[in-house]
Design brief:
The chain is built from 19 helices and no strands. The protein is mostly helical. The two termini are about 20 Å apart.
Length: about 475
Amino acid sequence: MTVTSGPAPASSTLDRRVLAVAILAAFVAFLDGTVITVALPAISAELGGGLPVQQWVVDAYLITLGALILLAGSLSDLWGRLLVLRLGLLGFAVTSLLCGLAPTAEFLIVARALQGVAGALLVPSSLALITAAHRGRAQATAIGVWTAWTSAAFIAGPVIGGLLTDLASWRWVFVINVVPIAVTLVLMRGLRADAPRGSTPVDWWGAVLGAVGLGGVVFALIEQANFGWGSPVVLVPLALGVLSLAGFIVRERRTAHPMMPLGLFRSRNFAAGNAATVAVYAALSLGTFVVPIYLQQGAGLSATQAGLVLLPVTVLNIALSSWFGSLAGRFGSRWFMAAGPIIAAAGFAMLLAIEQPFDYVGQALAGILVLGLGLTMTVAPLTAAILGAVDERRSGIASAINNAVSRVAGLVAIALLGALIGTRIDGAWLDRGLLLTAGLLVVGGLISAVGITNRDARREPDETADPRDPAAGP
């Protein structure tokens, strides 16, 4: 175990505290990715800007989160997990307050980008704490519990955001983050971080190229709806972004200390798991964006009512994720990852029954339950398969890569929203969004069925070892 405490408490007590810290730290980062969704109409009503501003409020956070989470994973492995976690929590508290006090849409978008920087420090360090403190089936179960609560944050965000928006103001969607952050910092007082792992140089050029690449491409995807593909306002950032992303790949192949070690992808489960992550999390981001937006702006529901529609998904995640994590540890992840997304796709397809006037029980409840079961069956086994494919010493960067993949998939899905399904929010817009979401989930299931193996990756540690990386060991 790499996390210890001063007075030497019982191991089980320490493990529970580590798990609680990991859950709470990641919870705020995941929550803030979706809590904003139902508050977007209220934000645009007060600050202006329409759909493009709504997209940017979501994507400004995801751009910096996705671009810097790899760097954060490297820092987690290099400097120690709890140190990076503390920095992220403090930064997240400050930037959350800035978001809540934003006087203009532009200020809010910048504050959201800074919030994503802090959020990038939270997720890889939190999951690396779990993989360091647990082994074998206990690790799979702990990952399942972590996944249950962080996935619950992903889905519960619209519920919490709706309540705060309707009962107080959209600004409280951000300010409320201070509460779980304070609790997490208190729990961390009894823990002592693992020692720094050396003086390996940080890949700052890789971080810059990744951030510029993602920022340029996403800016072009969103703003093409306003300026058109032929405008220099779109073409210049697009070209800069594509060149930067290409430079990022070249940099990671050639540098002695890459931010994203490409050798990790030699592991079949790591590569296939991340490919499935692209499809699954692009679908989740798209689906959980279009449904609440349509229910408010198309069907006339309040922010709270729109958020409550997806509540059963959260309940199923909390109730069943640790169980599915245990089953994945016992039987392997492959068929859970294959069947789960396809079941979730069926749930989204069932939501095509939604029309005006909206009838929750008659039009949505059955689909929501099927969707929730499929997602719960997917996420914990997916996480376990990816982290089980790499050596524990590289769990921080492996977690960071997977989370970067999921966030980037989500931000690209949101950025392409207008181009793929249009900008007029009506029943046809919702149907196109649901069908696209279902199709992406089916792709994720097929990738898992073909690519994932239940072979124990720990028997082949050399598959992910990069001989240039001192952390990889002999």
